[in-house]
Amino acid sequence: MLQRFKRIDGITVIVLLMLMGISILSIYSVTHGGDDKGMHIQMLQYYGAGFVVFIGLSLFDYRLLVKYALYIYILGIIILVLVSLFGTVKFGARAWLQVGSFSFQPAELFKLILILALSSLLVRLARSQLRFRRDVVPLQ
After folding, report:
1. By 3-state DSSP, what share of the chain in percent is helix, strand and coil, each rounded to 5?
2. Which of these, 9, 28, 89, 113, is most buried using a 10 Å CB contact count?
3. Which residues span the membrane (predicted)?
């Protein structure tokens, strides 16, 4: 576990922290004294959560995702079907799933799942030569 933590690129972490700090200061300077007081605190919380996810995913073995890409893809399709059956309407579209007080758009998650599934497919097809008509055209 410690070896994976050591593999995280320090320059990337420093650049992320600098960009987070600059954006927090910018948001604070724009909203200071106005109706949106505290917006910088909210963004700081979002950045903190995102940074924890970044570190967690950096420690995660991505080969497990490639191994189970088909099952993750099928689960994503099922979740999209659940949206059409049980989704809530927000902003004029039935595109949101409500789980307790948390709501999210599964279509945004499915974009990542689709990238994972296609990359897994292309890795499996890499053993043979790709043909445009057979392999690329059906993906469109």
Report:
1. 70, 10, 20
2. 113
3. 12-31, 43-62, 69-89, 109-126
Task: Give the separation between CA 68 and CA 116, rounded to whole angstroms.
Answer: 10
Look at residues 113, 111, 112, 80 and name the one whose alpha carbon lies nearest to residue 97. 80
pLDDT tens digits along 30-67: 888 777 778 888 899 999 999 888 888 888 888 888 88
Question: Cα 30 from chain centroid?
Answer: 28
Q: Which of 2, 12, 93, 26 is nearest to 54 (CA)?
A: 12
Q: Are 97 and 106 in contact (CB under 8 A)?
A: yes
End-to-end CA distance of the chain: 40
Strands (DSSP E) contained in the chain are: 88-90, 93-99, 102-104
Tokens matching residue 29: 């300077």
Please give the model's pTM, rounded to 2 decimal places. 0.65
**39: buried, middle or exposed (CB in 10 Å: 19+, 13-18, 0-12)?**
middle
| Residue 128 token pair | 């043979």
Token readout for 74 is: 């099928």
CA distance 22 to 98: 33
